[in-house]
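Protein modeling request. Please complete all fields; requests missing the sequence field cannot be processed.
Requester role: graduate student
Desired output: 3D structure, token encoding
Chains: 1
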Amino acid sequence: QVQLVESGGGLVQAGGSLRLSCTASSRTFSSYAMGWFRQAPGKEREFVAVISRSGGRTVAADFVKGRFTISRDNAKNTVHLQMNSLKSEDTARYYCAADHTPYDVWASRDSADYDYWGQGTQVTVSS
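Delivered output (127 residues):
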């Protein structure tokens, strides 16, 4: 069982920045690709970004490219999502998820591939 705890959400004005963090309880954190997803009220959960277990590969949704950056620190069991140039449409609850994989470059956009989820952290962007 892996526990994921997100932090760093909050209220920010449009154009501002936030840095989300997710800390995992697992001793084998480097065995997991780590993803961020988000869900706005009345909408389906959507993929934001993912980083492979080694950190060598990242994939981001088109709507965040150039604005959001995912990174990880395997020594600290932590994954980050740096969010810049925030827009009102980025308002959502952001979830961290872990996908156990034997492949160094595996980085899935599909939420069904993920084994563990955090409780989420709310991001609200005011216009």
